[in-house]
């Protein structure tokens, strides 16, 4: 789910970037970067990071509910920011930032839970997590 949404937001960022080249609007440039990095790249990192940590620690993946919550708050926060900045609605931007922060907290919770359940918890590499 993270992979497909990340690719979709990368594509949306590319469309916004092409639109910026045609219109030269200041906020469109910002929107392209926002969608590319916060929406696309960081979401790919969230999904891949958990996948590789799970494989490295030889543990079960995070609960589906936890993954769905991360996915939901991350994408909602990204969209709220993408709408709030160009429309100049600070409440949307603040809510989006809060949801992104919550997404990072949920990501940390997932990593911590995987570390606790790990069969390799005593290894040096596992201590980094």
> What is the residue-averaged pLDDT?
88
Structural domain count:
1
Helix-strand topology string: HHHHH
The total of beta strands comes to 0
Major beta sheet summary? none
In percent, how helical is the residue content? Answer: over 70%
Q: Quote the beta fraction.
A: under 5%
Structural class: mainly alpha
> So what's the overall shape?
elongated
Rg calc: 17 Å
Give an account of the 3D structure.
The chain is mainly alpha-helical. The protein has one domain. 86% of the residues lie in helices and 0% in strands. It has helices at 2-23, 26-57, 64-87, 90-117, 124-128. Helix 2 runs parallel beside helix 4 (90-117). It is elongated and about 55 Å long. The two termini are 23 Å apart. The model has no long low-confidence stretch (mean pLDDT 88).
């Amino acid at each position: 789910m993270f992979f497909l949404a990340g690719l979709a937001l990368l594509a949306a960022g590319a469309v916004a970037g092409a639109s910026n080249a045609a219109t030269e609007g200041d906020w469109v440039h910002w929107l392209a970067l926002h969608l590319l990095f916060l929406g696309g790249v960081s979401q790919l990192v969230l999904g891949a990071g958990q996948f590789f940590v799970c494989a490295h620690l030889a543990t079960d993946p995070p609960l589906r509910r936890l993954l769905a919550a991360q996915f939901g708050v991350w994408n909602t926060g990204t969209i709220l920011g993408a709408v709030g900045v160009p429309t100049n609605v600070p409440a949307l931007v603040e809510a989006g930032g809060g949801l992104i922060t919550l997404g990072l907290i949920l990501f940390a919770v997932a990593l911590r839970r995987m570390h606790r359940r790990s069969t390799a918890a005593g290894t040096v590499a596992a201590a980094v997590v």
